[in-house]
Design brief:
Layout lengths: L5 E6 L7 H13 L2 E8 L3 H4 L3 H24 L8 E7 L3 H12 L3 E5 L5 H6 L3 H8 L3 E5 L9 E5 L8 H22 L2 E8 L13 H21 L7 E5 L2 H12 L3 E5 L6 H5 L2 H7 L4 E5 L1 H6 L7
Parallel strand pairs: 1-2, 1-4, 2-3, 4-5, 6-7, 6-9, 7-8, 9-10
Antiparallel strand pairs: 5-10
Helix pairs in contact: 4-6
Length: about 300
């Protein structure tokens, strides 16, 4: 048995091939958690352009058909010893209503099928996946169609670069590692720790900097990473301190290590960053594997317990 008690699967389509549902059932099997499926139905544009009275009738009919398909999907998975419940929501505002529903229920994890979102779409709007991980003060798990049922290789990405709030940063990093450890223990998987660094800006003004000085600066940047890894018991061969941009480094390591899940923190965006998107949103919008995002509120109020 493990630390998960209730997993919520968010479905925008009654897809019998849903990777999110497959992942949730696999996690429930090893943890003993219950699974609650929330199907969210959103009227299509063609209905919204028709005469209002017919539009309302069509929406009700479509919603009834959606609920019937959803019930049929869940019926396929009953009788396997997992507590499985279902609810459905016809949403005018899919983001707000779904997040309100989930926030009231407070599951241990929300699991959803990944959506690939172009950069321009993120620039001019907020995709559902990004809205969900920002709006839900918990753990959100995005699963691509090709994902295995139960992950075995987990990579947690931390930021150990110099910060204006080193205490808060260290606490958040420890929370991310322990969330990843809990998942790895639950799945009998292997945990890897990653942090990206860059020296390019530090020496751009002086091309005559010695290699010894570069090595000294790199060692200074790596010291807090090594301290975190040591404190959390991460083996030497599972520590990865790599030079480069965080998105590029993360994608390279996912491929090199054959990672199943990346664990990342949700950053509260401000100003221009809200338009451009941070590292986590860029990864979620074009995921190289499953992505588990952790809201800062989780670290402040809850610490995962090791699984038996």
């Amino acid at each position: 048995m493990g630390q998960y008690r209730q997993l919520l699967v968010l479905l925008t389509d009654a897809d019998r091939h849903s990777a999110a549902l497959r992942r949730a059932l696999a996690l429930a099997h090893v943890s003993g958690a219950s699974v609650h499926v929330l199907g969210v139905f959103e009227p299509s544009e063609e209905h919204l352009l028709r005469e209002e009275r017919l539009n309302e009738a069509d929406i009700k009919r479509q919603f009834a058909q959606y609920r019937e398909r959803l019930a049929g999907l869940l019926e396929r998975h009953r009788g396997n010893g997992i507590s499985l419940t279902v609810d459905s929501l016809s949403a005018d505002d899919i983001r707000r209503q779904a997040i309100d529903y989930i926030s009231e229920l407070q599951p241990d994890m929300v699991i959803k099928d990944s959506e690939v979102v172009p950069a321009l779409t993120r620039l001019f709007g907020t995709p559902l996946d990004c809205a969900l991980m920002r709006g839900f003060n918990g753990v959100t798990h995005f699963v691509p169609a090709t994902a295995v049922a139960l992950p075995k290789r987990i990579l947690v990405a931390v930021d150990t670069s110099p910060s204006d709030a080193p205490g808060a940063q260290a606490l958040f990093n420890r929370g991310l590692v322990r969330t990843a450890q809990a998942l790895a223990l639950q799945c009998d998987g292997q945990l890897h720790l990653l942090s990206a660094y860059s020296l390019s800006g530090m020496f751009a003004a002086d091309m005559n900097v010695s290699q010894a000085c570069i090595d000294e600066m790199r060692d200074a940047l790596q010291a807090p990473f090594d301290a975190l890894a040591e404190a959390e018991g991460v083996p030497l061969d599972c520590r990865h301190f790599e030079e480069g941009g965080p998105v590029q480094v993360l994608r390279q390591q996912v491929a090199a290590l054959d990672i199943d899940v990346v664990v990342m923190g949700v950053v509260q965006l401000k100003g221009l960053n809200k338009l451009l998107g941070d590292t986590t949103e860029r990864i979620v919008s074009r995921p190289p594997c499953s992505v588990l995002t952790v809201h800062p509120h989780v670290i402040e109020t809850w610490e995962p317990q090791p699984c038996n």
